[in-house]
Amino acid sequence: AQTVTQSQPEMSVQEAETVTLSCTYDTSESDYYLFWYKQPPSRQMILVIRQEAYKQQNATENRFSVNFQKAAKSFSLKISDSQLGDAAMYFCAYWDGNKLVFGAGTILRVKS
Amino acid sequence: EADIYQTPRYLVIGTGKKITLECSQTMGHDKMYWYQQDPGMELHLIHYSYGVNSTEKGDLSSESTVSRIRTEHFPLTLESARPSHTSQYLCASARLRGSTDTQYFGPGTRLTVL
Hints:
Mean pLDDT of chain A: 93
Number of strands of chain B: 11
Strand content of chain B: over 45%
Mean pLDDT of chain B: 91
Largest sheet of chain B: 7 strands, mixed
Shape of chain B: globular
Low-confidence stretches of chain A: none
Helix content of chain A: under 10%
Order of helices and strands of chain A: EEEEEEEEEEEE
Oligomer: heterodimer
Strand content of chain A: over 45%
Largest sheet of chain A: 6 strands, mixed
Largest interface: A-B, 21 and 23 residues
Number of helices of chain B: 0
């Protein structure tokens, strides 16, 4: 079974600085999809960024980018120019063909 | 913001009561999901559906049941609520066609069983 591991339960970043959230996964598939979701406190879970495994180019969405290392099965999220509104729980997820498999999440705190 | 709705947002109820958590979406999505999430913890899939009259159990065993009579509606029912059911319940939906399967989440229902 596929697993997703987020080894950082909690991270802190100073406003305007850059932070990287780690995610590793385990799969025997060659083609799959990976996601980062953001869950602000008491608010709706929203998609941050999506990566297709067959694409070598790292996905980017404004201040959010990923470092996708397929051989290492690593999928980290980089947030540049951190803002107070980035404070949330971030979940890494793997699409197994039927459903999303989520990691345990990383709480990101942003200091002003 | 995605067009997926959950009601009620908060529910406090006594042990033994029957409850139904509502989830509806206006995006015409075929796939719908229910997750259970304790505060600050990971999500556990408890039910999912690929379309009308299709329901499947997820990875986490749950005493709840679901139904899918209409595409837009995916209610979750607990016949007899217990304190162990206290949690947050998140509903999500996605297209059936297409390979990206981005899931859109509702705002959640925070359930407390006394």
